[in-house]
Amino acid sequence: MWEPEKTEKQVTAAAQHPDAALIAANGVQFDRDTILLEHLLGPAVRERLLGRALLKWDCYDALMESNLIFTTSQVLVPRWALAQAGESDRRFSVSSDWDLYLRLARDHPFVFLSERLVRWRYLDTSASGPRELRELRWAADCIPILREELRRGRDGRADRIRGLIEKACQRTAYAAFVYGERHDRRWARRYLLGMWRRHGSGAFLIYLVAILVPPRVRDVLRRLARKVTDGEQPN
User: Fold this and answer.
1) Distance between CA 139 and CA 201 in Å, rounded?
2) Which of 22, 51, 153, 194 has the smallest count of CB within 10 Å of its CB?
3) According to the 3-state scheme, what is the secondary structure of the chain?
4) What is the Cα–Cα distance from 70 to 38, expressed in whole angstroms?
5) C-beta atoms surrounding 140 within 10 Å
6) Cα 176–146–203 angle (5° rounding)?
7) Global confidence as pTM
8) How confident is the model at residue 134 (pLDDT cuts 50, 70, 90)?
9) d(Cα 200, Cα 215) in Å, to the nearest integer?
10) Residue ranges of the domains in the chain?
């Protein structure tokens, strides 16, 4: 849901900063009468926006760490910028926005508006799914997007992007393991196996093995590992 003045304020900002490839407004996420999120901009943006109405920022490096914009409803993209970057990549069913933002940010700054001009309704039936699964569904796209960025990104960032890919694999594998323990072990096993086959990271294989092992056996192995780490002899 857009506030009545949203488009006007973004068009004004675009006119004032004609080199900006994207204008993003702040907003809130809500569910019925409850505000779930007070901001729809990432922490890195909010820190720089503090006490300011507008931030112009070359945010490519920060954007590689995570998507700084929570929903495409916040965004205005000038036609010239979209013509340069190209359309959304349909291979990425839930994170094509982040892929597009990375392409836009590679050569141009973004403008962020602190004013909350968007109200984003939470629905567990959306493309991203329920809250418990969103990180895992996003990751299925985000890791390939980082691999694409490794191929086409700015010079001198290859090692950093490789590190981000491995970090994303480790974080995602652990999140899938936790989801399996709390909600659906069968789904988590299929997810971990699929991600391991797709990306080859040992993190997915380790947590796949962990979720296949019964909890009691896992607790025994954990205690033995702790004793070995502490220099004790296991009984």
Assistant:
1) 13
2) 51
3) CECCCHHHHHHHHHHHCCCCCEEEEEEEEEECCEEEECCCECHHHHHHHCCCCEEEECCHHHHHHCCCECCHHHEECCHHHHHHHCCCCCCCCCCHHHHHHHHHHCCCCEEEEEEEEEEEECCCCCCCCCHHHHHHHHHHHHHHHHHHHHHHCCCCCHHHHHHHHHHHHHHHHHHHHHHHHHCCHHHHHHHHHHHHHHHCCHHHHHHHHHHHCCHHHHHHHHHHHHHHHCCCCCC
4) 12
5) 18
6) 35
7) 0.86
8) confident
9) 25
10) 1-122, 123-230
Q: Which fold has domain 1-122?
A: Spore Coat Polysaccharide Biosynthesis Protein SpsA; Chain A (3.90.550)
Average pLDDT over residues 26-55: 95
Contacts by 27-34, CB closer than 8 A, 24 or more apart: 27/70, 27/71, 27/73, 27/74, 27/116, 27/117, 27/118, 27/119, 27/120, 28/116, 28/118, 28/119, 28/120, 29/70, 29/119, 29/120, 29/121, 29/122, 30/119, 30/120, 30/121, 30/122, 31/121, 31/122
Q: What is the mean pLDDT of residues 69-81?
A: 97
How many Cα atoms occupy the beta-carbon half-sphere of 193 within 13 Å?
A: 9
